[in-house]
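Quick review question:
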């Protein structure tokens, strides 16, 4: 379906009885490896310039291999957009940041990172969602940088004064902001979790961290992921994640083994395995008025995407 389509021509899905809908990832590590090897060769040949186009190829492959309700997702970004965004970010932030780093002005460097972190997170999410679609309808992010900056300041201050104990509260605030300002077409996602509900599990795992040599954090990570997804809604439909601590531990342990025995060459297979595991444990239950979703694409530039790369920030669609 072309991107000029204003309304999806399909009927309401699951309008009478709740339907459990699954996500699937069909990508193969071998295919992804082939793409990344070509990207590496061309990147070296062009002194890194091709890396922007290579990144787009990987994203397009990963999105095109993700299926929901019989249709694949699509990525519409271009290497030219990423390159232009990187140049702008380098002029605005990158050059001053590198100069301060070389001059060992550590305090000012940290101030720059702290000041531009909200800009990078919000702008990168806005760009990536604006370039993603399902059934021809684009996603978008409509949160404001200033609102996220204020939320971040409160979150990090609370975490600092509680010596890290309140970290899950700040993370829940962050999740709520990122999810509730995300849209598919003209319809927003919603997050109904409460910030304090992960606090006690977090404290329990803090106590267990030493006797379990830190392995308990796999179980906390799985619990947090289930909590975030299980409290995410799209209209009357609710997401559900069934990842477990055991499953996450087994996945990460086997990934580490693959990377060690292949000297890192199995990274493509690791990416594919991760996507298959997380999406394979994700479902959406409840009615979705697909026919009521209309195209409402939002403008976005790749400058924030480049900022997130400078500061090594990232995000997912969760």
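Suggested answer, residue by residue:
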């Amino acid at each position: 379906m072309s991107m000029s389509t204003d309304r999806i021509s399909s009927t309401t899905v699951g309008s009478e009885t709740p339907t459990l809908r699954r996500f699937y990832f069909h990508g193969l590590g071998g295919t992804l490896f082939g793409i990344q090897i070509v990207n590496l060769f061309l990147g070296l040949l062009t002194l890194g310039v091709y890396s922007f186009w290579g990144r787009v190829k990987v994203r397009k492959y990963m999105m095109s291999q993700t299926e929901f309700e019989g249709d694949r997702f699509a990525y519409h970004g271009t290497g030219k957009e990423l390159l232009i965004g990187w140049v702008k970010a380098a002029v605005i932030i990158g050059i001053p940041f590198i100069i301060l780093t070389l001059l060992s002005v550590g305090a000012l460097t940290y101030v720059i990172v702290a000041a531009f972190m909200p800009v990078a997170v919000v702008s990168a999410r806005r760009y990536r969602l604006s370039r993603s679609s399902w059934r021809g309808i684009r996603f978008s992010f409509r949160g404001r940088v200033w609102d996220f900056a204020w939320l971040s300041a409160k979150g990090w201050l609370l975490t600092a004064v509680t010596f890290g104990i309140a970290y899950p509260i700040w993370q829940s605030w962050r999740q709520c902001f990122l999810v509730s300002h995300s849209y598919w077409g003209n319809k927003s996602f919603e997050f109904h979790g409460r910030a304090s509900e992960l606090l006690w599990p977090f404290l329990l795992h803090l106590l267990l961290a030493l006797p379990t040599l830190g392995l308990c954090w796999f179980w906390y990570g799985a619990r947090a992921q289930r909590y975030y997804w299980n409290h995410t809604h799209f209209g009357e439909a609710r997401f559900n994640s069934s990842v477990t601590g055991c499953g996450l531990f087994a996945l990460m342990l086997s990934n580490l083994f693959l990377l060690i025995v292949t000297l890192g060459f199995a990274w493509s297979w690791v990416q594919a395995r991760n996507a298959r595991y997380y999406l394979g444990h994700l479902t959406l239950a409840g009615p979705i008025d697909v026919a009521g979703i209309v195209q409402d694409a939002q403008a976005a530039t790749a400058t924030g995407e480049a900022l997130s790369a400078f500061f090594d920030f990232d995000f997912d669609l969760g």
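Why it works: Residues 106-130 form the longest helix (25 residues). The two ends are 25 Å apart (CA to CA).
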